[in-house]
Amino acid sequence: MSDPRFTTRYTLGFAAAVCVVCSVLVSASAVLLRDRQQANERLERESRLLAVVDLLAEGERASREEVAERFARHIRPVLVDMGPGDPSHPASVQTVPAQATVYRVVDGERLDALILPVHGLGLWSTMYGYLALEPDGVTVRGLSFYRHGETPGLGAEIDNPRWRALWRGRRAFDEQGRPRLEVIKGRAGPPETDPHRIDGLSGATLTARGVTHTMDFWLGDAGFGPWLATVRQEAR
Known about the structure:
Distance between the termini: 93 Å
């Protein structure tokens, strides 16, 4: 008589029991850790928003309480009306919603900066980030990409603080109000003499092109362009 431990019925029953136990454990872990995961996601988002406007220094290890306190003191989420969207644009991965959340950065009662959430297609992935502008709605304060899947050492250089620092002081729009930020091949001049162009990414032409398309889309009529036009008008 064959050993009952090795029958087909026993094997299938044992495998099913293991699957059930594992499923219960995974589901229980997901439920028990949900609050912690959401808290960590919120901490990451708030830290990125603070960092792009220099309210959190590069590499600074602030506590969860410190991040929450700075965020509450300086960052004001605001819903704004969007343009009609353009799903055919290279930077667009979906139809733009009727409204989107932007962030007003305040210093007391004074407007200190504006932060726009942006996303667009790179070479291998959708790149998600924040573009910060000065209160004039034109001058770049900072740029940060917080999620992407670009090639390490090449397209992933969009994370490099030295490259991101090149954006500071650039002009997002020309005198006619058209989006003009462009990542070029080679080196750009300083913001004072070359206000719209940023140094290219060596070996990552398609990623650089994706960044340019992303800026063009979200600063244009299909994105935050109409709202920023009102900001510029009020700043005059």
